[in-house]
Write a structure and sequence with these properties.
mainly alpha; 51% helix; globular
Length: 140
Amino acid sequence: MGRFGRGRDVAARVEVVERHAFPEAAVNRFRREHPEVHPEDTALVEAAARQWFRLLVPDPKAALALPSRAVSDFWLALLYAEDSYRLFCQDAFGGFVPHRPPPSGPGEDVGCAGADAHSAACRSGRAGRPERAAVGVPRR
């Protein structure tokens, strides 16, 4: 079961994700870092990021795979708008949710994403499998 329980609390937190206005500075940062993404397509990346955050609402620590590198990079851009991101996390998840990079390659497990001690254990084969199935879209 997720960290925030069921029903009204989860629904209210999903509503926070739905209504949150991503800071223009973060959107502009993403556009500067990805000039290959057509400006109209940035809205698709924002929508995918919003969908990702909705998936995290019930259990922000769930071992879910990011749907794309673009969503990961958009999430990183949001982190630069520190005050806005901190408030968003508090309202939507009950606390700060750190960025988790997507798996770096086809052989890396969902639970192995990131650059921490657990990731090192995953790469060496010493860590267990995540309890949930991966949710995501294959990267190109």
